[in-house]
Automatic annotation (TrEMBL):
Quaternary state and interactors: Monomer.
SUPFAM superfamilies, per database record: P-loop containing nucleoside triphosphate hydrolases
UniProt protein name: Shikimate kinase
EC numbers, comma separated: 2.7.1.71
Known role: Catalyzes the specific phosphorylation of the 3-hydroxyl group of shikimic acid using ATP as a cosubstrate.
UniProt keyword Disulfide bond present: no
Subcellular location: Cytoplasm
Family: Belongs to the shikimate kinase family.
Record organism: Cochleicola gelatinilyticus
């Protein structure tokens, strides 16, 4: 079984994924980190030097590469991974996968991302908290269409990491 964590930037996919993989005794893979190692560039460099379309193509390519194996894994995707092309359908219908949406509320995301936006090219230019909040609200609304197709939804607002892992 492959557990695929999806959700907006800052929803905790990587921290939850690491812990979940330890509990399940299987490898944890972070798709962004995998892309960075394969491309030998940071995500910011890829956006800056090659553009977002190039990044999205690589994101899909490496996603498929990682799901080819048969071994169980916990995979943390990037916030946009399920929202391009037929990626969400691909994830949900792929043999032996379960998709889990870490559903985080707007204000928590804004507060977290305000301090963690520098490595995230889509929001790194939003220096004003209100502008960031406004961007996330619209973006999350658009993306929720995809996220909500996950097989399991975990509302993370009042939960600590261990409780999310328990779910
Ligand atoms: C993105 C989210 C990022 C990273 C890239 C684009 C997005 O991953 O893939 O900056 O489109 O939401 P995290 O969700 O891990 O921040």
């Amino acid at each position: 079984m492959k557990l695929i964590l999806i959700g907006y930037m800052g929803s905790g996919k990587s921290s939850v994924g690491k812990k979940l993989a330890t509990v399940l005794k299987c490898p944890f893979i972070d798709l962004d980190a995998y892309i960075e190692s394969q491309e030998q560039k940071t995500i910011s460099q890829l956006f800056q030097q090659k553009g977002e379309i190039y990044f999205r193509k690589k994101e899909r390519k490496y996603l498929e590469e990682l799901l080819k194996g048969t071994a169980p894994i916990v995979l943390a995707t990037g916030g946009g991974t399920p929202c391009y092309g037929d990626a969400m359908k691909y994830l949900v219908t792929h043999k032996d996968t379960r998709t889990v949406y870490l559903q985080c509320d707007l204000d928590t995301l804004t507060n977290r991302l305000f301090h963690e936006k520098d490595q995230r090219p889509l929001i790194s230019h939003l220096n004003d908290k209100e502008a960031l909040n406004d961007f996330i609200r619209k973006h999350l609304f658009e993306r929720s269409f995809y996220y909500n197709q996950a097989e399991l939804k975990v509302p993370v607002k009042h939960l600590n990491i261990d409780e999310v892992v328990e779910h």
